[in-house]
Each structure stands twice: as C-alpha cells, then as structure tokens.
Amino acid sequence: MFTNREEVLEKALQVFAKMNYEKATQMEIAKACGLSKAGLVYYFPFKLDLFVAVVDKYIFHTQQLENKFQFTAGSFPEFIDQYIAGVERTMNNLGRLLDNSNPYGCSFNFYYYHLLMQVRLYYPNAEKKIADIFKQNYQLWESAIQRAKENGEIRQDVDVEEAASMFWQVFFGISFEHSFFQGLNIKQLAKKLHFIYSLIKA
User: What positions does the domain HTH tetR-type occupy (predicted)?
Assistant: First the structure.
C-alpha cells in the first residue's frame, strides 16, 4: 500500500499520543504506517525529526488562532459562542485522527494532552513555543473583553487582564479535567463561559 509523508505524520501522531516518546520506536511507527523501518527512514531519518514534524502540524499549527477560530463582528456573547465553535471544530478534527485506535480506553483529549506533555520534554525550545500559544489566547480574550467594555456590554470596573485570565484558565482547566474522563463537554464549557460573562456584564 502506498504511503505518503502526510500519512506517515498521521500514523506517527497516533503512536506518539498513545505511547511515551521513548517507547515509540521507529520500528513501532513504521509498523503503524505499513512500512519497513527503511521506508520510514526515507521520509524521516531520525525519530526526533518525525516527532518535531508531528508536533508542528498537529499542535503548533493547529493551535494557531487563525487556524482554529472564525470570528465575525458581534456582541461578547457571540464571541464566546464563536470561540466555543472553534474549539469544537478543532476537537472534531483531532478526534477523527486519534480515535482510530484506543488501546487504553482514554478520551482522545487525554491522548492530546499526553502528547503535549511530551512536547515539553522532547521538543527543542518547546517552552517558548508553548508560551506563545498561551499568550495568543490571553491576548484574544483581552481584545474581546476590551471591546465589550468600550461597547458598554460589561462593567467599567472590570479588570480586562484579570477577566481574560479567568476565561482562558476556566477553558483550559475544564478541558484538562474532562480529558481524564469522556473528553471535553462542549455544553458544559459554554455554560461556564457564559456564566463568567453574567458576573461581569453591565
């Protein structure tokens, strides 16, 4: 069966997400791809090269705001709904990739977080790239909250930076907590974020 570079990345994603980096040998990855080890090495001579390519595509590229969200002008509640829609769309795309096999009975969200933890350990200069993702999300919320404040949607005494931290950290915390069970519950996330808005609206 013909295998191309994109198929190698997809299969490698599944292996890295469900095994520790150290356990995921080139032979194990090659087997998942339907290749010999030599066939895998043709595309990626070193395991770290393959790991970096997987992370670049499925974490750093996927989590870029322009690739995750589709915002249009509107009210702050509409911003929240569009944010949630982007999260759900990203989850669905990743779920199709990671749910092909489930050897440990975990949600695909858990496997994704498992991969993210490995990124921090094995991806060169990972701390800065992860920090950049978090910074983008904080700034996204800050911009939306500032607009809502200027439009009179939220109270004028609201600290924009603190409110942005609350929205982002509630999303990230719920996502991480739910990953240990059945995966992120989108309806619960929407309820939580709209509840925070109810606390600060004008």
Answer: 2-62
